[in-house]
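Can't paste images in this forum, so I'm doing it all in text. The chain is below; anyone willing to post the predicted structure tokens underneath?
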Amino acid sequence: MRRLILSMMVSLDGLTARPGGDLEWFRTDERFEEVMLSLLGSVDAILLGRVSYQLLSQFWPTAGTSDAPDNAGGFTSRERR
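Text version of the structure:
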């Protein structure tokens, strides 16, 4: 049996976004990105909700290009193996 891992960003008051969907409260650093990329590199599949899927479906066609964030190219290259 495989493990199911939930990774979700939630504020101390239990919210995932500000009113209107603003996510500006969430900050990352290099260590956080290392941990998340390691986690992403170890999974077989990612289950997304409708809104997350719609947002990411707009992003992934540009992943690995100069317009994408630095960490996108590393993830997509691992996924293609």
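The first helix runs from residue 30 to 41. Residues 71-81 have pLDDT under 50 and may be disordered.
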